[in-house]
């Protein structure tokens, strides 16, 4: 790095204001210093080398800078003869970095220093940096293009350690590339979890080697009569690894004992006598299917299924669904949840389930996902279980925006962009407070969408608001301030070719 002591030209930057930049989620603390860092071909990226994951974060930044600006910045390459400016991604054990995802960003005239305890923190930090790089270079300040990044200091940490979106790949199947494109956008807005709803009445989407008919039979259908599809275990592992490269954990869900028509169609011994006879289902009804909670063979089947998926899911969680088992007798439902929890734990995972599972006597380490019932959420909190907050009325991405928008349903109401943003997980249910909450999730059910373009129409721009609800402190949440920053996401959304709903509530920054 001593090589960088070449003659530096003094650039007279126009006055900048870091605190006025359209960052989402809004950082915890931003202190502007009025000057700027000029990103150009003379910039190099260096990282701590004690942890190879930091160098990987540096390469990720370099690649993204290249696709945004065309600049090719070396990472830890010592032969930078014309090095003038430095971005340093530093592993730091500072006590000020309280959570694994905390980071500090110091932007000065000649250097950018990013401090983080873990590579995950560094990864969140480079998303902030990427959001500060303008789309257009400044070509007037010096004899070459310069991307002007406002100077100052950002100190940042997430409100919740679990910030997630769910994708229902069961009602309609989405390809690996469609899922990866969604992961890219989630990463940009600092999500750290992707929940995949891998099975439902209309389709089974993950290869289980010991039970091949699940995909051969159960995978060949979807809502509306399309051909369905499924991920081989190799494809699923590819999604998991792609997410992990972006410090995003995949939470696999096999929904049961209800929502299991496609499984029971594949293996009729699973079928519960009180449920509707399995057949190929392409409609949107719910609540008519169930596994038989009384049969030992059902649990040995589930031991195989959960075991195979757990083995290729490095994250700590396994989601068992548990919602809308309307034809399962309550005593059978409770028996089922308690037995499946043991299987999940045997495979070294923590059980997650939709809020109905709180009716069973579950382990306090199991996690309850509030989607519908405040009573169930309170039961979970009483039990000492943490909650994932995703109320249908506020956080379901498949609810229509308004009466004129395309796609989506409205059984939980319309969710315009402001309504999706204007609520606080911490005060949503009386009696539930921050210490009961693991985090927030925005689920996207796919009854009415069948490709990436339609997926994006429902998810964007609302998912960007849930990113802020999950990350930023409650006193930073302000619709008037947020909507201006949201409007400024257009260059990113356009560059990524993301099909967002141009809600009239936002004055979009279009050319
Ligand atoms: C759900 O929406 N049935 C969890």
TrEMBL record:
Q: Which InterPro entries match?
A: Beta_hexosaminidase_sua/sub, GH, Glyco_hydro_20_cat, Hex-like_dom2, HEX_bac_N
The alphabetized UniProt keywords are: Glycosidase, Hydrolase
- Catalytic reactions on record: Hydrolysis of terminal non-reducing N-acetyl-D-hexosamine residues in N-acetyl-beta-D-hexosaminides
Its EC top class is hydrolase
Alphabetical list of Pfam families matching this protein: Glyco_hydro_20, Glyco_hydro_20b
What's its EC? 3.2.1.52
Q: Where is the Glycoside hydrolase family 20 catalytic domain?
A: 160-473
**Beta-hexosaminidase bacterial type N-terminal domain span:** 22-157
Question: What CDD domains does UniProt report for this protein, alphabetically?
Answer: GH20_SpHex_like
Q: Which family does this protein fall into?
A: Belongs to the glycosyl hydrolase 20 family.
Q: Which PANTHER family match?
A: BETA-HEXOSAMINIDASE, BETA-N-ACETYLHEXOSAMINIDASE
Q: Quote the protein name from its UniProt record.
A: beta-N-acetylhexosaminidase
